[in-house]
Amino acid sequence: MANRLRRPVHLNLLKIWMPIGAISSIVHRATGVFLFLALPYLIYLLDLSLSDAAGYLQAKEAVHSPIGMVFVFLLMWSLAHHLLAGIRYLLIDIDVGVQKGPARRSASAILVMGLILGLSLTMGVL
Question: What pTM value is reported for the model?
């Protein structure tokens, strides 16, 4: 038993280096989950805004509050990132950008462009 390899007792995910493609993939999945979970609240806001003038003002105040603005930014960023990453994965499915260099560049571009587009959409909405 003395010559057995010592294996880690626990796996520390914060110390594992992940490639940019893996980070982009994880964020793509997380944004999809967030978009799905945000649907009930968005439907509630739509119903509230269409009910009457007071409901519209209440929905407007909810969106323009500090928490509401963060929610709108997260929603717009999630939408932008999920759309751009989805297009990237569709291109990868048809063997465009599969090589290591282009795959890294496209993953980095998705992360950066998602933030820029999310900020632009948030400024347009608010």
Answer: 0.85
Local structure of 120: helix, strand or coil: helix
What b/e sequence results for 43-54 when a residue is b if at least 16 CB atoms lie within 10 Å of its CB, and e otherwise?
A: eebeebbeeeee
**What domain count does the chain have?**
1
For 65-124, the pLDDT digits (tens) are 999 999 999 999 999 999 999 999 999 999 999 999 999 999 999 999 999 999 999 999
Is 12 a domain residue? no
Q: Hey, what amino acid is at 70?
A: V
Q: Which residues span the domain enclosing 37? A: 20-125
What mean pLDDT do residues 47-51 have? 97
Instruction: Note the pLDDT of residue 28.
Output: 97
User: What CATH number does the domain containing 69 carry?
Assistant: 1.20.1300.10
Residue 99 lies in a domain: yes
Has residue 76 been placed in a domain? yes
Calculate ∠ Cα 76-82-85, nearest 5°: 135
